[in-house]
User: What shape does this take?
Amino acid sequence: MSRAFVNEDQAADQASQPVERMISAQPNYVTASGLAQLQARVAEVQVLQAEQSAMGERADRQRVADLNRDMRYYQHRLQHAQVVAPVTSTAKVQIGSWVTFADEHGDEQRVCLVGEDQADAGVGLVNWGSPLGRALLGASVGEERVWQRPAGDLTVEVVGIETCP
Assistant: This one.
């Protein structure tokens, strides 16, 4: 067999390997519900891995590789999770605080600061390490902060702080 065919075979094997999921350099602060979500994801992947394993030779090799990659990611996130204490004060914005803020035009938004893996902007859960999260973290009611966005900086004022359920 020529050397070219060996290299093509090796390239095909490497192409089937999934790209590793990026692990953030920021501390993995999580709320109690964020920790539960990570634990549920690990359990879910374990079930899927068991299903693939039960298929034996019929298992989808790419699916198995993807599941193994996901398991490495979630186990790492779980091992490095630092659960933050539940919010007991609404004096300053913390991870686990619902924050209502108004922009320069008086438009109000309400978000809850959570850990990276729990973030879901569609329902108002914002990563504490995002530009908005960093701008709001530690602010008190009435305080103005600059939200550094790609579209341009925006001054926002904290108008309310509550605890996340």
User: Anything to note?
Assistant: The chain has a mean pLDDT of 90. The CA atoms of residues 31 and 83 lie 6 Å apart. Residues 32-54 form the longest helix (23 residues). The two ends are 64 Å apart (CA to CA).
